[in-house]
Amino acid sequence: MYPEFSDEYWMIEALKRADVAEQHGEIPVGAIVVKDNQIIAEGYNLSITQHDPSAHAEMMAIRQAGKHIENYRMLDCTLYVTLEPCSMCAGLLVHSRIKRLVFGAHDEKTGSAGSIMDLTRHEKLNHQIDVTSGVLAEVCSEKLSAFFKKRRAEIKAAKKAAKGES
What we know:
This protein is α/β, with parallel strands linked by helices.
């Protein structure tokens, strides 16, 4: 469908990790770290199941990548993530010295790679990241929208059931 090793190709891999998150009842966000055209790490949201607000897909993938390359610096790596990183994750990416960030859907509420702020390319920080946004954005956005629509319907049905309504 897409050329091998293109941004779209890798985003599809990140979307597969988002599917795993959803299977665990998590917000469907997935991430992979690529180095030399190989996936060296992956992550998906685990904040709910791990009771850990820092267990975002990016955080999980970067932690795994550091162990894989045995370094806390990701100088020649690219992170692919289905949703624009929040400020916590954008800060992590700066500290990890990741070379490149590619994300799908923009996050107009907490996105910190251009939407509400841009920590990834802030001129006063000691590292700036090459950012590509909007890769398979519609697919990534739809996955999140469908999840939240389903979640709202489940909450509404649970409230109805608690009231004894049919």
